[in-house]
Design a protein that fits this description.
12 helices; 5-stranded parallel β-sheet; 33% helix; two-stranded antiparallel sheet; alpha/beta
């Protein structure tokens, strides 16, 4: 572990000033969020859920919730890391950190390592109770002015959405070669329907190369209430997949082959793929959906998946049960998800 961007704020007297200042510092648009741990929660993923809540995400309620897979610790923290990277979170302040278990403190430190964000922990108890993982952290402050100055410092990540360029899964043809293949028609492949380990990737070009040849189809307009509902979805793959279906009205099967390089670096266009790549249209991504697709791509990149694997592949398993359940909770979007399109 590297602790250079972790700060302990020692508040022995539990001064209301520190808690109030931390809550007022919650400004997601500026890259800073404040996480308030749920007291006395026994759920192993509770702190990750608190992080998702601070990021503006809401878990679907109920015993048969489609978000039940986020009860898994690894899945929940991966989702939180994906949203943190995609939305450019640069500083996370956690209140009442002295109530956290050693396991949850370790989870927080691992999340910081994964995202590169600055982490500030309010320890509202005597410092002699610091666990070993935090006792090794040298940066500690205890004064009000020091804390205010810390909240005003620029973090290690720019306060803007992080839209890194896509990693290429295969060499892209030169523009002149690509132009000879097609000038306006959809690009076609060699009939391969999936990319599997040990098999060569199909030659269907990515979104950036395609954008040099054809104009992206305009996005379908969605009401603000529906876009807000999609933006609040907790899992980045589900939020990204349903947003694509909403602004393209494409079939669910078209998402099966969407790769990292099928999303442009600025997340302004996405390329979908038909069966045997006979029709692979390019769609413009509306502004409201770009952070959602950025979250899905960040989720893909934070997992040990080859760049040629499908970005949405994990939510297409088991007849896309979780994806279909969330679509059913958004009836005004009229997202039709027939299960038959999911079988290779």
């Amino acid at each position: 572990m590297v602790y250079g961007d972790v700060t302990i704020v020692v508040d022995e007297r539990d001064d209301l000033f520190f808690t109030r200042a931390a809550l007022q510092a919650h400004r997601p648009a500026e890259g800073r969020i404040t996480v308030q741990p749920t007291p006395a929660s026994g759920s192993p993923a509770a702190l990750a859920h608190d992080m998702l809540y601070a990021l503006g995400k809401r878990l679907a309620p109920g015993p048969h919730s489609p978000d039940v897979w986020l009860d898994s610790v690894n899945a929940a923290w991966l989702a939180a890391a994906s949203w943190g990277v995609a939305t450019g979170v640069r500083h996370v302040v956690v209140t009442r950190a002295h109530l956290l278990t050693i396991r949850r403190i370790d989870q927080l430190l691992a999340w910081r390592e994964l995202t590169g964000a600055q982490l500030t922990l309010l320890w509202q108890r005597l410092p002699r109770g610091l666990p070993p993982a935090l006792a090794r952290i040298e940066r500690r402050i205890c004064g009000r002015e020091e804390f205010e100055a810390l909240l005003g410092e620029p973090g290690p990540i720019p306060a803007r959405p992080s839209f890194p360029p896509a990693a290429s899964a295969m060499p892209q043809p030169a523009p002149a070669v690509a132009a000879r293949r097609s000038s306006a028609l959809p690009l076609r492949g060699n009939g391969a329907t999936a990319v599997r380990p040990g098999r060569p990737a199909h030659p269907c070009t990515g979104a950036l190369a395609t954008a040099q040849l054809v104009q992206a189809a305009p996005a379908i307009e969605i009401a603000s209430e529906e876009t807000a509902a999609l933006a609040a979805l907790a899992h980045p793959l589900i939020a990204g997949a349903l947003s694509v279906l909403a602004f393209t009205r494409a079939g669910l099967g078209s998402l099966r082959f969407t790769r990292d390089l099928d999303i442009t670096g600025d997340v302004c266009a996405i390329k979908l793929h038909g069966v045997n790549h006979r029709c692979c249209p390019l769609h413009a991504v509306p502004a409201w959906a770009r952070p959602l697709l950025a979250g899905a791509r960040a989720h893909h990149r934070l997992t040990p998946c080859p760049p040629g694997d499908g970005v949405f592949a994990p939510v297409m398993l088991a007849e896309a049960r979780h994806l279909r359940a969330h679509a059913g909770r958004l009836p005004r979007l009229d997202l039709s998800l027939p299960a038959c399109t999911l079988v290779p």
